[in-house]
């Protein structure tokens, strides 16, 4: 089975608008940024968190605290992924106790990545609240998890895959839907 690109569902301008809207919604819901920490889930959540922080700085005059989280060792499917997992860096530069931590990721699917991210985050302290921001929510939840901030809901089949492409990693900004050929 091969994976082929089916369609582009968000272009670079659309992704920019999604990031801007999510940034505004985060500030509005939290009544500012004083107690806020944006935490990007590696891999694509990290540049997304940086972009959201930059957008917030544009209209608030300062950016919220920002960190990154590697969830590799918290995955419930670790033994099936690799015998020797590659663990990336986790950097949480501020005390998260009593703060509002906003986890940021590209796609929300089964909810298992978010569950692992919450477990990893709790190892760094006890935030007052954990919120979730995603570019795409594609459904198919296996755990009772929902995003607080969603760029776009894209109902998909199990045969489809959502690919968020980011300039920092992929050399372009877009969201594509791919499908497995039989």
Task: Tag the structure with descriptive keywords.
single chain, 182 residues, alpha/beta, Rossmann fold, 5-stranded parallel β-sheet, 3-stranded antiparallel β-sheet, 5 helices, 8 strands, 30% strand
Strand order of the largest sheet: 3-2-4-5-6
> Which consecutive residue ranges, at least 5 long each, have pLDDT under 50?
none
**Secondary structure: helix percent:** 25-40%
Structurally, the number of domains stands at 1
- CATH second-level architecture: 3-Layer(aba) Sandwich
Shape: globular
Summarize the structure in words:
The chain has 182 residues and is an alpha/beta fold. The chain has a single domain, classed as Rossmann fold (3-Layer(aba) Sandwich), CATH 3.40.50.2020. It contains 5 helices and 8 strands. It has helices at 12-29, 45-60, 78-81, 112-122, 167-170; strands at 3-10, 36-41, 65-69, 100-108, 129-137, 149-153, 160-165, 174-180. Strands 3-2-4-5-6 form a 5-stranded parallel β-sheet. It has a 3-stranded antiparallel β-sheet with strand order 1-8-7. Strand 4, helix 4 (112-122) and strand 5 (129-137) form a beta-alpha-beta unit. Helix 1 (12-29) packs across helix 2. The protein is globular. The N and C termini lie close together (6 Å). The mean pLDDT is 93.
Q: How are the SSEs ordered, and which strands pair?
A:
Blueprint: E1 3-10, H1 12-29, E2 36-41, H2 45-60, E3 65-69, H3 78-81, E4 100-108, H4 112-122, E5 129-137, E6 149-153, E7 160-165, H5 167-170, E8 174-180
């Amino acid at each position: 089975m091969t994976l082929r690109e089916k369609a582009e569902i968000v272009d670079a301008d659309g992704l920019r608008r999604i990031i801007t809207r999510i940034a505004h919604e985060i500030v509005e819901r939290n009544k500012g940024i004083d107690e806020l920490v944006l935490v990007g889930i590696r891999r694509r959540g990290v540049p997304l968190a940086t972009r959201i922080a930059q957008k917030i700085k544009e209209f608030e005059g300062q950016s919220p605290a920002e960190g990154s989280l590697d969830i590799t060792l918290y995955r419930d499917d670790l033994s099936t992924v690799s015998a020797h997992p590659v663990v990336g860096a986790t950097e949480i530069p501020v005390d998260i106790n009593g703060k509002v931590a906003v986890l940021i990721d590209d796609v929300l699917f089964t909810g298992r990545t978010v569950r692992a991210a919450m477990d990893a985050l709790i190892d760094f302290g006890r935030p007052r609240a954990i919120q979730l921001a995603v570019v795409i929510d594609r459904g198919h939840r296996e755990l009772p998890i929902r995003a607080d901030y969603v760029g776009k809901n894209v109902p998909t089949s199990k045969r489809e895959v959502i690919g968020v492409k980011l300039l920092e990693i992929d050399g372009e900004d877009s969201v594509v839907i791919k499908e497995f050929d039989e």
